[in-house]
Design brief:
The structure is a homodimer of 491-residue chains.
Chain A lengths: L12 H25 L4 E7 L5 H11 L5 E5 L5 H4 L5 H5 L7 E5 L4 H8 L5 H20 L3 E8 L2 H13 L9 H8 L1 H15 L6 E5 L3 H22 L32 H18 L3 H4 L3 E7 L5 H9 L7 E5 L5 H4 L5 H4 L8 E5 L8 H5 L4 H21 L2 E8 L2 H13 L9 H8 L1 H15 L6 E5 L3 H17 L3
Parallel strand pairs in A: 1-3, 1-4, 2-3, 4-5, 6-8, 6-9, 7-8, 9-10
Helix pairs in contact in A: 1-10, 2-10, 5-6, 5-9, 11-21, 13-21
C-alpha cells in the first residue's frame, strides 16, 4: 500500500504558488455550496506516521477553508468523560452536521493500531476492532456521510531525517520527544500493522488515500485537491447518490508513477541469459517438487503492457514445470456463462488444487485496468473491486496458496517497435489487433490505472513485482527468479 | 431472535389447500419473468436446527418451482477437490447464474457454527469467519444477487418431539442417527452460538428470516411467500436497484404475534402492589449502589402502545434511585441539530457515564416503529436499522452497560378506555393528542412492526421484556422486578 507513496513525490515552489490560489478559491466555493445545500456532512480523517506532516496539513486546511464551516477535533488520550462511555462515543459526539466539514486528527484507527503495535493486544482483538470499524463506516456511508481517509506516510529513512530536522531547528525542537524516537524504533512493526489495517479497511465507499508526507507542498496540494474532487463529485450526484457508496481515488497531481520509477534500460546479455535461465529453471523445478509445496500451491498473475512479453515469460516458466501440476489460464473477454455471474466467479473456477500452479495470462485486474479505462465497468463497480480483489487474494493466501503478481513494463517506444515488428513478421501478425493500437493511444490513462492498481493492491501477502521488460532476457530472468524465490520460501 | 418463532405458528389444512395453488402459480410466473429478464440470480439459503423441516421444505420448493431454472446444492462434508481449495470455493462454484434460483441446503454458515459448537474453535475464530461472511454477502449484494436466508428453528422440547416422531415411523426412522441425538444434547449451546451468528449477520441487505419449523404447512407457505415477495420486489425495482441493497421482511401469513401471546388479564391487587412496590424499590436502590454497578451503568428503554403507562412505570423507577445517578431522556421528534446527523447520533449523546442510569422514554426503536409505519423513513433505511441498532446496543453492552428494554402492551379496548378517561380528566387532557387517535387506527400495522422489532432485536445481551400493562400495578411491578434482577446480576 505504501510503495506508491515512496516514489519521492514533489511539487516545485513555482507550481505550488501558481496552483494554490485557484485551489483555495475552488475549495471555498464547494464549501459554500455544501453549507448552503446541507445535504451531507464531510469527515476528513487524518492518520499516519509521526513526522509526516499531519499537523501541518491540518493547519493548512484550516487556513484554506472557511473556518465557520469546519470543526477540527484532535483525538489524543480520552478524557474522563470519554473513558466512561463506549469507545466510539467520542467520535459520535464529534461528528460534523450536514453541510459541515469535520477534520479528525486521529481517529477510531489510532487505538486499534497502537494497541497492537505497542500494547501487546492480540491479532484477534485487532480483527474484531476492524470488523467494528467496517460496520461503522458502512453506517456512515449509508447515512450519507462523505468520508475521506488520509494516511500520511514516510519511509523509515525519511522519518529519521525528518525527526532529526525537527530537532535541529530551535523553533520545532519541542515537537520531538523521546516517545517519537521510541516509535521510530518500532517503525517496521508499525508499518506492517498499519499496512494490514489499511488493506482491510480500504473499501469501495471509504478508501484510504495514502499521502507521501515527505514534501510539504505535495502533501498539501494532494489533500486539498482530493477534498475538492470528493466534494465536487458528491455535490454533483446530489440526491442521486444519497448513500455515498462509491469512493474516490486520489487525483494525480504530479508525474510520479510507479512505472516511471523503473529503469527500463536493465538488460542481460545472451550468454548471461542462457546461464541464468538454466539456473533458475532448475531451481524452480526443484522448488515446485518439495513436500512443503505439495501442501500449498501457487497462483501466478501476469499483467503488462500489450506486447510486453507475457507469453514468452510464461513459456519459460512452463518449461521448468511438470505439465501435470500447472495450468495456464488465458483470460479473454468473459463468456456468456461468465457474464451471468459475479465478477470474480470466472477466476474462482480456475483456482488450483494443492501442490498445483495456476498461471493467469491476464487476470481479475482487468476490472481496474481495461474495464476502468474503456468504461466497461461502472465507476462504483471498479472502485469497489480493489477491496474485493484484496479479499479474494487474502482468501487464497490464507488457504496457503503463494500469490505472485507480475506487471511487465515496456516503454511506449519499445511497444511501437514491437508492434511494427509483429506487422512485418508473418507468424506474429495474428498477435497484433486494431485494439492494440487503440489501447496505445490511451497510454497515459493506462499508466494511471496501473499506478492506482499497484497502490491499492500491493499487499504484504500478495505483492506486485514490476518487471522492466524492454529487454526480454532481463524480464524473463527476473520473473523466474522472483517466482522461484517465493516458492523456495515455502516451508 | 428465536422467540417469535416459538409462538406456535400454524396454518390449518383448509387454508393451506386454498392458498397453495395460487402461490405456485405466482411463483412460476415470477420465475418465468426472472428467467426471461436474466437480470440477477437468486440464492435461497436454508439453515437451522435438525428436524425443523429443512429437507422437506427444499423438496417442496423443488416441487413448486420450475426445476429447469432451479439448482439445489446440498453442502455436507467437503469433497477432496473442495478441501484443496479455499473454503469459499465450493460456494462460488455452486453460484446460480443470472435468471436462475440456487437453493443452498447448508451454506457458509454451517462450518463456522459447528466448529464453535462442537469443534472447540475459539470465539475469535468465529468472529473472523463472520467478518469474512459479511464481506462476501456484501459483495454478492453489490453484484446484484438476491440472497434470501432462511433459518429453521425448533424449541428444545419441539426438537425432542420431532426426533422421537421420526424414530417411531418406520419410513423415517433412517433419518435419525446417534449424531442427531448427540446434537440434541448440545441444543442450548447450538442455540446460543447460532443466535449470536444470526444477530451479527442479519444485515439490511441480507437479513435472516427465522422460520418456525414446527408446522409443516406454515413453514412451506412462509418460505414460498417470502421467495415470492422477495422476487417480486426485486423484479419491480429492476435496474433501479442494481445493488439489491435493501432486504425484506418475512410476510405475515398467520395471526401469531408476540403481543398476542401475552396474557393481558395479569393483575395485582392494591395491597399486594403496595408490598411488592416497597420490596422491589428497596432492592433496586440497593442494586444501583453496589461497587460492582459503579463500574457499569445501565440503559433502560421504554416503548409501548400510547397510554400504556410508560410515564408511570418510569416514575416508580425514578422514585427508587438517587437523582444524581439517573436521567430520564424523553425522545420526541428530532431537533434540527439532530436531523443534521446520522440517525443514532441523538441517542449516543445521551449515553450515561459509568455507574449512571439513562432511562429512555421512547428511543431509537422509533425508526422501526413510527417511522416505518408512517413512512417517515425510507424502507431501505428502516430495514438496515435493525442491524445498526443491534450493533449500537452491542457496543453499549460490551462497554459494560446493562441494557433493559421494555415494551408495555395494552389491549385495543383498554387503550380506548384510557383515551376516554384522559379526555374526561382535566390535568390528563394534555397527554392525549389527535396523533394518538390516528395511531390507534393503525393498530394492526403497529402490532406487526412490534413483532418484527422483537424478532430482529431481541438479542442475548439486550433482550426485550414484554410487559402486560392492562393492569398498571402488574406492569409497574414487572418492570421494577425485571430491572432490579438485571442490575443485581451485575458482578
Amino acid at each position: 500500500m505504501f510503495e506508491a507513496a515512496e516514489l519521492g513525490h514533489s511539487i516545485d515552489k513555482e507550481t505550488f504558488r501558481r496552483e494554490v490560489p485557484a485551489l483555495r478559491e475552488a475549495l471555498l466555493e464547494v464549501q459554500f455550496d455544501l453549507a448552503r445545500r446541507k445535504q451531507f456532512p464531510v469527515i476528513v480523517l487524518v492518520g499516519g506516521v509521526e513526522g509526516a506532516g499531519k499537523g501541518e496539513t491540518v493547519n493548512t486546511l484550516n487556513e484554506w477553508l472557511d473556518p465557520r464551516q469546519v470543526e477540527t477535533t484532535a483525538f489524543s488520550a480520552p478524557s474522563d468523560e470519554e473513558r466512561e462511555r463506549p469507545p466510539m462515543w467520542r467520535y459520535w459526539r464529534a461528528l460534523p452536521a450536514k453541510g459541515k466539514i469535520g477534520i479528525f486528527f486521529g481517529s477510531w484507527y489510532s487505538d486499534p493500531i497502537l494497541s497492537r503495535v505497542e500494547g501487546g493486544k492480540s491479532k484477534a482483538t485487532l480483527e474484531q476492532a476492524l470488523s467494528d470499524i467496517l460496520r461503522f463506516e458502512r453506517m456512515l456511508a449509508d447515512e450519507g456521510v462523505l468520508l475521506l481517509k488520509f494516511w500520511f506516510h514516510l519511509s523509515k529513512p525519511q522519518q529519521k531525517k525528518r525527526l532529526r530536522a525537527l530537532e535541529k531547528d530551535k523553533l520545532t525542537r519541542w515537537r520531538v520527544g523521546p516517545q517519537d524516537w521510541q516509535r521510530y524504533r518500532r517503525y517496521d512493526r508499525f508499518r506492517s500493522v498499519s499496512e494490514a489495517v489499511l488493506e482491510r479497511t480500504s473499501t469501495g465507499h471509504a478508501p484510504w488515500i495514502v499521502v507521501d508526507g515527505s514534501d510539504e507542498r505535495y502533501r498539501s496540494l494532494l489533500v486539498g485537491k482530493t477534498i475538492l474532487q470528493g466534494l465536487r463529485k458528491r455535490l454533483a450526484n446530489g440526491a442521486a447518490e444519497p448513500n455515498g457508496l462509491s469512493g474516490i481515488l486520489a487525483p494525480s497531481i504530479d508525474t510520479a508513477n510507479v512505472l516511471d520509477a523503473l529503469d527500463l534500460t536493465a538488460a542481460l546479455g545472451q550468454q548471461d541469459y542462457a546461464r541464468e535461465l538454466e539456473r533458475w529453471q532448475g531451481r524452480l523445478n526443484a522448488a515446485a517438487r518439495t513436500g512443503g509445496f505439495a501442501k500449498r500451491g501457487a497462483v501466478v498473475v501476469f499483467e503488462g503492457h500489450d506486447a510486453a512479453g507475457k507469453g514468452g515469460a510464461i513459456r519459460r516458466i512452463a518449461a521448468a514445470l511438470d505439465a501435470r501440476f500447472y495450468r495456464v489460464v488465458p483470460i479473454a473477454a468473459p463468456t456468456d456463462e461468465e457474464r451471468a455471474q459475479p465478477y470474480l466467479w470466472r477466476f474462482w473456477r480456475h483456482l488450483p488444487r494443492l501442490g498445483h500452479i495456476a498461471i493467469f495470462d491476464r487476470s481479475w485486474y482487468g476490472r481496474v485496468l481495461v474495464e476502468r479505462v474503456e468504461g466497461f465497468a461502472a465507476e462504483a463497480d471498479w472502485l469497489r473491486a480493489y477491496a474485493e480483489i484484496n479479499e479474494f487474494e487474502a482468501e487464497m493466501t490464507r488457504h496457503g496458496l503463494v500469490m505472485v503478481k507480475f506487471w511487465l513494463a515496456i516503454s511506449k517506444q519499445e511497444q511501437f517497435r514491437r508492434f511494427k515488428e509483429r506487422e512485418a513478421t508473418g507468424f506474429k501478425r495474428f498477435k497484433l489487433t486494431a485494439e492494440d493500437w487503440r489501447n496505445r493511444k490511451k497510454w497515459g490513462v493506462y499508466a494511471r490505472a496501473v499506478h492506482d492498481m499497484v497502490e491499492r493492491t500491493n499487499t504484504a501477502a500478495a505483492p506486485w513485482t514490476l518487471v522492466e521488460a524492454n529487454d526480454k532476457n532481463h524480464a524473463r530472468i527476473k520473473v523466474l527468479r522472483t517466482l522461484t524465490q517465493r516458492l523456495e520460501a515455502v516451508k
